[in-house]
C-alpha cells in the first residue's frame, strides 16, 4: 500500500520497519473518534470557506458510511495500514477521489492523534466512573445489610476495637468516592481541544478552532500549538487516578482473601467468583480477588512506563508518543474488568456474623472500654490500663472472655467494679457508644450510607 507521506522519500520501508512503525493494531480502537473528529474538521473547513459546502457534505456523508461499515463488519480495518488515521483517509480517498484528499487541509496527524486520544479517553473516563459507581452502590447495599453486625477492627492486623462490618465496608465506599472525583477532575483537563495546532506551529489557513472544539464537546482549545500536539499529561493523569483506584481494589481484595480463609471465615464468596483446585477437592479459592490484587501491579507498570517514555522528550511531537496508547489503553481495559468482577463478587458475598462476633469476643477488643469504665469510676488511666491488661491476661489463661468473667473475679482486681461492668464491655454497647461522626455506631454508619448515596445521584 502506498504511503501517504511519500514525496520527500521514496516511501519504501522494509517490512520489519513497517511492522515496527505501525500502530494500527492498537490505535484502531479509536476509529469512531477519528471519524467523528474528521466530520467536525470538514464542517469547520466549509464554514471557513476553505473547502466548498458541497465537498464537505460529500466528505461527511462518506465518513458516516465508513463508520457504519466498520461497526456493521462490512468494512474491516486493514492491519497493513500505518495507523487508523491513514486507513480512514485512504478509504475515504478510494470512495471520493480528489474530494477525499481535501479533508486533511489545515491539520496534521500530530494534532489529529492528540484529538482522537483525548476523545477516546474522555469516553473511557466516563465508563470507568460509571463502573466505580456501580461498585460503590454494591458496597453500600452490603454495608446496609450488615450495619449492626459486630466484627473486630484491626491495626497492625491485630484485633484492636469492635466495629461493624457495615462500618468497615463504608471505608471502601469513601475511597471509591475519591476515585470517582479524581477521574472527574482529570477529565476537566483532558477536555481541551488540540485540533488546529497542526504539526506544531499552527496553520496559515483561516481556521476556527473554537467551532471545531464546540462541535466535538470540548470546553475550550489548547492555547499553545506546541503544547497541543505534545501534551500527554492527561494520559498520565488518568493512569495515575486509575492506579490509585486499583490500589483500593487491591486492598479490598486482600481483605476478601483473608476474610474468606478458614482462619478468619468472616465471609463466604459465591461459587460464581471462586475456583477449585485440580488436586485438592476441598479447596474454594478466591482467585478473582487475587487476580485483581495482581493486576494492580500491571496498571502501576502502565503508569511508570508512560512517565518514563515522556520524561526526556523535547518539544514538540516525537514518535515515542506512540507508546502512550498501549499503556493507557491497557490500564483502562484492566481497571474496567476489575471493577466489574469486584462488583459481582461484593454483591454475591455473604457475611458470617457469628464468626465475626466470636473473633471480636476472643480478641478482647473491649479492653479499652473496660479501662474507660475504671477511669469513669475515678481511677487514673494508667492504673486502669494496667489492671485491664492483667484481667485480659487472666482471661487468656483461663479461657474466658470479658463479657462472662464473674464479678467476683473483677472485684479481685479492683473494688471499683460492679454490675455495670457488663454493660461497659458488651460489644454491641461498645459499638453504639461510638457516636462521633464517622464512627462505627449504627446511626453513624447510616449517616455515612446516606452521604455516599447523595454523592452517587
Describe this structure in words.
This protein has 457 residues and is mainly α. The chain is 63% helix and 5% strand. It has a two-stranded antiparallel sheet with strand order 1-2. A two-stranded parallel sheet has the order 3-4. A hairpin with a 2-residue loop joins β1 and β2 (158-164). The longest helix is centred in the N-terminal third of the chain and has 37 residues, at 109-145. It is elongated and about 100 Å long. It starts with 14 loop residues before the first helix and ends with a helix.
Present the secondary structure layout.
Layout: H1 15-21, H2 24-27, H3 31-47, H4 53-72, H5 84-96, H6 98-101, H7 109-145, E1 150-155, E2 158-164, H8 165-190, E3 192-193, H9 209-215, E4 220-221, H10 225-230, H11 233-259, E5 267-268, H12 287-310, H13 323-348, E6 350-351, H14 353-362, H15 367-376, H16 381-398, H17 407-413, H18 420-425, H19 427-432, H20 442-455
Helix pairs in contact: 3-4, 3-9, 4-5, 7-8, 7-13, 7-20, 8-11, 8-20, 11-12, 11-13, 12-13, 15-16
Q: TL;DR?
A:
With 457 residues, the protein is mainly α. It contains 20 helices and 6 strands.
Structural class: mainly alpha
β-strand percent reads under 5%
What do the pLDDT scores average to? Answer: 95
Low-pLDDT stretches = none
Oligomer: single chain
Q: Helix count, per DSSP? A: 20
What string gives the helices and strands in order? Answer: HHHHHHHEEHEHEHHEHHEHHHHHHH
What percent of the residues sit in helical stretches (DSSP H or I)?
55-70%
- Biggest beta sheet summary: 2 strands, antiparallel
Radius of gyration: 31 Å
Output the strand order for the largest sheet.
1-2
Number of strands: 6
Gross morphology is elongated
Termini separation comes to 51 Å
